[in-house]
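Follow-up to my post from last week.
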Amino acid sequence: MNSPPVTMRLILPRQGKRGINLWLPLFIIVPVVAVIAFALFLLLLPLMLIAVVILWRFGWVKLLILSFPAVIGCLSALRGLKVDVNQGRERVLISFS
Amino acid sequence: MAENQKRILEMLSEKKITVEEAEKLLSLIATGEGKGGTATAEAEKKRAPKYLRVVVQPGPQSQEGHPERVNIRVPVSLIRAGMKFAALIPPQAADEIQEALKDKGVKFDLRNIKDSDIEELIAALGDLEVDVDSGHEKVHVYTE
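User reply:
Got it. Predicted complex:
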């Protein structure tokens, strides 16, 4: 498995204003988000179980369970992704490292 | 022991060649193997691309002002991970995709893609190089 991205750089233009320039330390944000997501998961567990029982026969639950590792795999493989579009003074940059 | 080395030693034991000649031949084989090994390693390295790059730059005839520049680098591991989603397409959606592809004249079934096919496809990406120069802009797609 790939090592997940550690930082994310984001540059977005804003009309008439100075663009957004962010450097996000994912190694800090991701654990915090993971804890919040897990807490939400525990809170919503009863509702989710009801949804699982209802949707089981349609095959969507199996698909959802199978897609989870694929999503994690995609997120882990983001390291090295760079999208840099430049036009004059406007620049859009999304970079994971 | 390699076949050639064995033959040289046999020729030496049969006194068909001298010790000096055998030494020279053995060293030549060793050098050849070293070069071959390096070449194989280089070829292996070339065959395994790490990133897919798409670069768009303004050409010599591009309009004055603010020409657009695009620089995209996609990790091959992300392509590999993304391709695995093809297996997760719901059957109903897969049928619709298949119909749409058929309408466009594409005879390709997404459901038939296996892991080995993905690996072959990614290995083949190593030789990919697309260069488009329209005058206004240059597009370069390659792997590194």
